[in-house]
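User: Some background: our group keeps a shared notebook of sequences we're curious about, and every so often someone picks one and asks for a predicted structure to add to the entry. Today it's my turn. The entry only has the sequence so far, pasted here. Could you supply the structure so I can complete it?
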Amino acid sequence: MKAPWKLHDKTPKDLLVDILLEIPSLYEGIDELEGKERFNLAFRQELQEAARGAITRLLQWAAKFGISVDLSRPDWQSPRSFTNDEIANVHLMSFYWATLMIAHHSYRMISHEEPNTLGIDVDNCCRKIIRCIALFVHPSTGIFRQHLMPFPAMTAIQHLNSAHPLTLKPEREYLLSISTMPEFAGMCKFMTSLHPELFVGSGGIKIELEK
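Assistant: Of course. Here's the predicted structure to add to the notebook entry:
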């Protein structure tokens, strides 16, 4: 008798989660690499290949399952109402962009910030995630937002905190503008419990703006 989860093909999100689950071991390897008294080139190269492999599989996933999501509209901060399918598509792609950002970050840490040879635009991934947040806080999304947004949102906020204050300025301003919205409050409380360093007080987002 087959196990129940073997009776059905994996969904695109299942396959994406499989890749995401590879990444914690990369960070464990980074900790081990930094803890060694002597620099271990062979171990570093092994980690680099593992990180590069995860990124390659993510790009292959996007080529096969990626969905076009229009986030370039001038009214992206105040989107119209949308369908459940559109919300599902935005959730899937924001999950992908966040996973790609984390995999890329692990590669850069392993490589000691060597120049990016992978062709990954993490700023653009971050931009897309933040523009998706506008859909997640829309009234049409309802309570589902509590489950759809925290992972990609935290990934994007972490990236903004490590980037120059002029990077993605419109997106920074948008996040600050919604940080006190009731629709955002529940998610912000949950995210604060996981990463308190990213938030201020009872829910304000800690994001620097260039004066």
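Suggested note for the entry: The longest strand covers residues 199-200. The chain has a mean pLDDT of 80.
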